[in-house]
Design brief:
Layout: E1 3-7, H1 11-20, E2 25-30, H2 33-37, E3 45-48, H3 54-60, E4 66-69, H4 73-85, E5 90-92, H5 104-109, E6 113-115, H6 124-135, E7 137-149, H7 164-172, E8 175-179, E9 182-186, E10 193-197, E11 201-207, H8 214-217, E12 223-230, H9 234-243, E13 252-254, E14 257-259, H10 261-273, E15 281-293, E16 296-307, H11 316-333, E17 341-343, H12 346-349, H13 352-364, E18 369-375
Parallel strand pairs: 1-2, 1-4, 2-3, 4-5, 5-6, 6-17, 7-12
Antiparallel strand pairs: 7-15, 8-9, 10-11, 11-12, 13-14, 15-16, 16-18
């Protein structure tokens, strides 16, 4: 039985800890006692600790066989660096804005296996891309993905399974995609299209900066794009907030006090967007790849539709994100993947055994990706 420490006990962190506890000795760490209390009596060790203390993290993770990092994005890069410096293998889902590949040489020198961006998207879409990149000469990759509440509540028709600050980052960070071999940068929330998704109906898609590592690891694919999905009407309301300055990090003076608009907005939206216990939500994703295999042009499509699980009381986003990461943890602990350095999921999925292991692991937990193959 391996000893695994999970950094972060939010919605996704708790789901991952509970999944791993079926097979391993798990300790969960968070600064928030309310989060930790939800794991009491579940056979999981709990430690209250400020994960912003990167020096303390190195001492904290001594004695563990592996680390799973689920800290907020703004803390992610420094946390990952501290874990690597401590010489611990790690799977990371913090989705930080910095380029994780900058830590590749450090991880290699420390003999560390670090799998990053290992969620649903980024994550499973990269794994699928990595696998088919080995089989086909690809010309096109597109990922459409969104986490949505089942009940559309006015005005935003949205609930966030994680911090509103991380969601707002997605709405403000310029979106990069690749078109005809050239990188294009556009504002987030641009190029709105209406998409029909099975079991859901019409959704709106918009540019977001979701390609991340594949811009650098798959430069030979001429067309690559990731777009976020929301219910129609959501984008207009978010753009109104963004363009009116509600997401600004520049302080403004109100009655002699310096106020940062983003902090106020995040506080308000936390209550508005917070998923309540037992509130049903869904994850939808469509990954489309176009290319040739043995001279035959074809389109490969993977569709995911996943719902809140009433039996486990786990949100869909925490299942689809978390189980991808726990699959990777088990894969590393089982010796199926042991390369040293920083590995975005596409560099893991390129290995057939790893690809099949992760898909089967998810299927066992009723997270099912349906594949279509169309000759063109």
């Amino acid at each position: 039985m391996s000893k695994v420490i999970v950094l972060g006990a939010g919605m996704v962190g708790r789901t991952m800890a509970l999944d791993l506890a079926k097979k391993h000795s798990i300790t969960s760490v968070d600064i928030n006692n309310d989060n930790l209390n939800r794991l009491k009596g579940k056979g999981i060790g709990i430690i209250q600790f400020d994960l912003g203390d990167t020096t303390g993290i190195k001492k904290l993770i001594e004695g563990f066989d592996m680390v799973l990092s689920a800290v907020p994005g703004f803390m992610g890069h420094k946390t990952l660096q501290a874990i690597i410096e401590a010489g611990k293998n790690v799977v990371d889902i913090s989705f930080f804005p910095e380029n994780s590949l900058d830590l590749h040489n450090l991880a290699k020198s420390k003999g560390v296996t670090a799998i990053v961006d290992c969620g649903v998207a980024p994550g499973m879409d990269n794994i699928i891309l990595g696998y088919y990149n080995e089989k086909m000469k690809l010309t096109d990759f597109e990922c459409l993905v969104g986490g949505l509440p089942k009940v559309k509540k006015w005005p935003f028709y949205y609930k966030a399974p994680f911090s509103p600050v991380d969601v707002i980052e997605e709405y403000t960070r310029p979106a990069r995609y690749v078109e005809n071999g050239n990188m294009v940068v556009k504002p987030a929330l641009s190029d709105i299209e209406h998409i029909e998704m099975e079991n859901v109906g019409t959704l709106e898609s918009f540019n977001s900066d979701g390609l991340r590592s594949i811009i650098f690891t798959m430069p030979h694919i001429p067309n690559m794009k990731e777009k976020t999905l929301r219910y129609p009407g959501h984008v207009d309301k978010v753009m109104a907030l963004r363009d009116s300055g509600f997401f600004s990090e520049t302080p403004i003076n109100i009655n002699g006090k310096e106020i940062i608009p983003l902090e106020v907005t995040s506080k308000i939206l936390f209550n508005e967007w917070k998923l309540k216990d037992g509130e049903e939500e869904i994850t939808v994703m469509r990954v489309t790849l176009i290319g040739t295999e043995n001279g035959v042009k074809k389109k490969i499509v993977y569709n995911l539709y996943d719902e809140y699980n009433d039996e486990s009381k786990a949100s869909s986003m925490s299942r689809t994100t978390g189980y991808t990461a726990t699959a990777a943890v088990n894969m590393v602990l089982g010796g199926l993947f042991s390369e040293k350095g920083i590995f975005p999921p596409e560099l893991v999925g390129k290995h057939k055994d790893c690809f099949n292991f992760i898909l089967n692991y998810l299927k066992e937990r009723n997270v099912v990706y349906k594949k279509e193959e169309i000759l063109l």
